[in-house]
Amino acid sequence: MSSRRSGSVALSADGLRSPRCSEARRSSYLIDDALVRASSAGLRNIATIKVRVYQHLITEVSADQIITPQERHVMAMTREMLRLSDADVGSLEQELNRREVIWSIQRGELPTINSPVALQKNEVARFAFYGVEFHQERVVSRKCVGSSEGYSIRIAKGVTYRAGSHRGRYVNRTALVPVGIGQLVLTSKRLIFAGTSGFSVPFIKILQLTAYADGFAITKDSTAKSNVPFVFICPDPELTILATTACINGT
Questions:
Q1: How far apart are CA 181 and CA 194, in angstroms?
Q2: What tens digit of pLDDT does each residue of 177-215 get?
Q3: pLDDT by residue (tens digit) across 113-165?
Q4: Domain spanning 125-141+174-248: which CATH class is it, in words?
């Protein structure tokens, strides 16, 4: 074990993966270093210190954006040694799992999952996102504008001439309205919305994807006059947009 200088221990990524260093020693090494850091930061609450130790471990093992099975085992051992529950570190591990998916997509690696919907021949499911809202621009009202009854001129008894009347025209008022909520499934071929008003769009038919802070919109290749964007509001916009873009591009 490296000696401490000035109350801290320098960690080495190579040391964490060295075959000569047992997983137990790695776990102990990281705990020891994190305890020193927590003490230096003035932390006194034991529960806070234990969570900070585990958080420090996650930072160390994910520094290269690749978490090996050995590092996963070190994490499990450390958690057991610290007696941490899901309530203590569940959110930390969920975020780590999420970041792992993002890193794998950025490396060009797309997973294969069990599909929650029926697939076509030679089609595989890549991602499934739940609680996605589908919105689309729809006509919400119609109003007649420019109509006039004109005016009447009495020419003789019982004879009236009306002039200047015209029927006007109807104008539609549109707005982005919620259409349904359900699963957004991304496959090797299509974007599938499984829920109320379900549908699918082949990736080769998507002309454009526009990202927003809370979701994204796609525009289809269509000659229909009613071809309006498909808008999706997502619980995790960053991951959903990244996954959708990767699948469209066939990464």
A1: 8
A2: 899 999 999 999 999 999 878 999 999 999 999 999 999
A3: 999 999 999 999 999 999 999 999 866 666 665 555 555 666 666 666 565 55
A4: mainly beta
